[in-house]
Amino acid sequence: MLKLALAVVLLCFITSPALAFWTTCPEFPGARGPDRVDTPMCDSERCFAVRGEYFIANITLSSPDVHHELLSECIAFIAGIGIPLPMEPPHDNGCNAIFRNGVQQSCPTTPNNQYVWVVEQRIIEGIPAFQNTRVQYRIRDRGQLVGCVQFWATVV
Ligand SMILES: *[C@@H]1O[C@H](CO)[C@@H](O)[C@H](O)[C@H]1NC(C)=O
């Protein structure tokens, strides 16, 4: 019994989102986080990216709501000041890059369906480099903030 309890605790610990590199955004409790994020660009502590190159990630997400757009904005808090990192279309709108079972979908989304958002976002050269900086990735649907994750990142 003790072994089983230990195994369950270990399993919860290993799969806990607390060990992921991202969290939801504390100042936006109504904004959802994704189900999971797969990216070779982050370890459990932070993400690392190079200006002029691509940030790639597969974001698995689901929502109880219908979404008509999934406009993303990325903000780096450099010395405490939020600096928006410009996103280039079409990848600034998740509706242009969501998949189910490998088949591309479009918006509006179907509630409670799980989608994989394939992110291929070029990091433009014009932004400042930063180290171990808090970054928020926010998702808006017609102006309303519906999703937000934050993580630590170094961009060179
Ligand atoms: C994202 O998913 C696609 C399709 O399943 C796969 O080919 C690709 O390797 C994945 N990329 C990452 C970063 O997980």
From TrEMBL:
InterPro entries: Ig_E-set, ML_dom. The keyword Signal applies. Coiled coil: none annotated. Residues 1-20 form the signal peptide. Keywords: Signal. Transmembrane segments: none annotated. Residues 45-153 form the MD-2-related lipid-recognition domain. This is MD-2-related lipid-recognition domain-containing protein. It comes from Polypedilum vanderplanki.
